[in-house]
Structure formats: structure tokens, C-alpha cells
Amino acid sequence: MVGKYVTVRRYEGVTDPVEAARIVQTGFVPLIHKIHGFVAYYWVDAGGGVMVSTSIFQDQAGEEESNQIAKEWVVENLAKVFPNPPQITAGKVVAHS
């Protein structure tokens, strides 16, 4: 996986994790899958109103595009259940197992 790029988006204060998961699976997953260089996407319910997404791409351009698409998509589709903007951490994979 060295050479790939990852972005992690952490959402806090999620008011309805079940609904958020349903909307992400049916609406966002098909979008992110179409981004050039897509490798994998994971949506995690961390409990306590915290949900985290992890996206993996072949290149930095895909990782950056995913963040822009996610930002716009969340505003349009999940504003009711995501009251706060995400904390975003992104970068190049430099080690893996």
C-alpha cells in the first residue's frame, strides 16, 4: 500500500448514526467509487455520536477530490444528522502491514 493516499474524516455530534449509515451507503459510496484511483472506503460508527470515514486512493488527486465531493455531498444530503463539519486528516501512506 506504500504510495497510496488516505483521507480520514471524523464527524462528531451525529444525531442519527443508523440513518447516516444508510444514506452514506446508498448515496455517497457509489460516488466515491467512481473517483479515479479509488481503492477502498470504510464508514465506521465509533459510538457516542462519532462516525469516521476512511478512503484510500492510488494518488493524491483522488484523495483530494474525495474530500471536495464529501464536503459538498454532506451539506446537500446529511446536514440534518451531521451538525458539525468533519475533522480531516489526509496524506501519503508511508508504512503498512
How large a portion of the residues is in β-strands, by DSSP E? 25-35%
Q: Which class best fits the helix and strand makeup? A: alpha+beta
Query: Reading side by side through the largest sheet, how are the strands ordered?
Result: 2-3-1-4
Largest sheet: 4 strands, antiparallel
Rounded to the nearest angstrom, the radius of gyration is 13 Å
* Uncertain stretches: none
Number of strands: 4
Q: Which geometry do the CA atoms define?
A: globular
Please characterize this protein's 3D structure.
With 97 residues, the protein is α+β, with helices and mostly antiparallel strands. The protein has two helices and four strands. Strands 2-3-1-4 form a four-stranded antiparallel sheet. It is globular and about 35 Å long. The mean pLDDT is 94.
What's this entry about, in short?
By secondary structure, this protein is an alpha+beta fold. Helix content is 36%, strand content 32%.
Protein traits:
alpha+beta, 97 residues, 4-stranded antiparallel beta sheet, 4 strands
Write the layout of secondary structure elements.
Elements: E1 5-11, H1 17-33, E2 38-47, E3 50-57, H2 60-77, E4 87-92
Antiparallel strand pairs: 1-3, 1-4, 2-3
